[in-house]
Amino acid sequence: MINLDYIFDQMKENTHTIHAIVSPLASNDMANVLLSLNQAPFLAEYYKEVYEITKNSHTLLVNLGTINENKLISIREALKSAKENNVPIILDPVGASASKVRLETVNYYLENYPISVLKGNYSEIYSIYHNNLSTTGVDSKNINKEEIIKVCQKLSTMYNIIVVATGKEDIICDEKETLLLKNGSPLLPKVTGTGCILGGIIAASYSFKENLSAIALAISILNIAAELAIKDKGMASFKLSLLDQISLIDSKTIEERIIYEKL
């Protein structure tokens, strides 16, 4: 059994500052989720302040959900600060499988900054490794699981990072180990911003323990909460119930319900 107890208890007992540069479409939900997990989100994007804020944070989350010239300048300043001040970086390459600009931006970040965790859906991870677009939107296309596992492992070795590929089954790997997580709900992809929320939870849990178990905990918080959420009324009820379940979840529930496989 992977050890999730210690990390979850530390999150509940201690508050870390998570500097998150994310899409405004999901920023409110993500911030509220972090607050419900006893963490302190700081969603600063002004280029004159992001260096200082990143320096004083426990992790930096960079999400490419919505980008423009000013935001990319701010991201560059935040990444520079994280690099110079040893702040772990979580990179969510939203849309890297659909836009040449996004794909080139992600590759530049991977080559020039010490990214700790790369978290994307199957298509985004596939496109980053092959340096080739694979979709026309931000949603993942159907890619063979065995193939994406190999891609994750190769990317992890290439950049010495933890790689997370989200899909029907979620893949986490570093250079030594690969985990396959099997919890979740088919309704999760129907709610805008759940990937951004996951990025925030990963940034929080990773700030307490920089390993695969922390990532597994983060994914399990979201996926198990989705399993427990209301599903028979409508998408609005599901979303609100999902947020409720994240705030109510405990380590015992996670340990009892988690389904995973070590490869």
From TrEMBL:
Pfam families reported for this sequence: HK
Q: In which pathway does it act?
A: Cofactor biosynthesis; thiamine diphosphate biosynthesis; 4-methyl-5-(2-phosphoethyl)-thiazole from 5-(2-hydroxyethyl)-4-methylthiazole: step 1/1
Q: Which cofactor does it need?
A: Mg(2+)
Output the superkingdom of the source species: Bacteria
Asked whether the UniProt record includes Transferase among its keywords, one would answer yes
* Keywords, in A-Z order: ATP-binding, Kinase, Magnesium, Metal-binding, Nucleotide-binding, Thiamine biosynthesis, Transferase
Record: residues binding ATP: K119, T166
* InterPro entries noted in UniProt: Hyethyz_kinase (IPR000417), Ribokinase-like (IPR029056)
Can you tell me which residues bind substrate? G193
Instruction: Tell me which EC number(s) this protein carries.
Output: 2.7.1.50
Q: Which GO terms describe its biological process?
A: metabolite repair; thiamine biosynthetic process; thiamine diphosphate biosynthetic process
Catalytic activity field: 5-(2-hydroxyethyl)-4-methylthiazole + ATP = 4-methyl-5-(2-phosphooxyethyl)-thiazole + ADP + H(+)
Could you cite one Gene Ontology molecular function of this protein? hydroxyethylthiazole kinase activity
Q: What does this protein do?
A: Catalyzes the phosphorylation of the hydroxyl group of 4-methyl-5-beta-hydroxyethylthiazole (THZ).
Stated family: Belongs to the Thz kinase family.
Q: What is this protein called?
A: Hydroxyethylthiazole kinase
Q: Which organism is it from?
A: Anaerococcus octavius
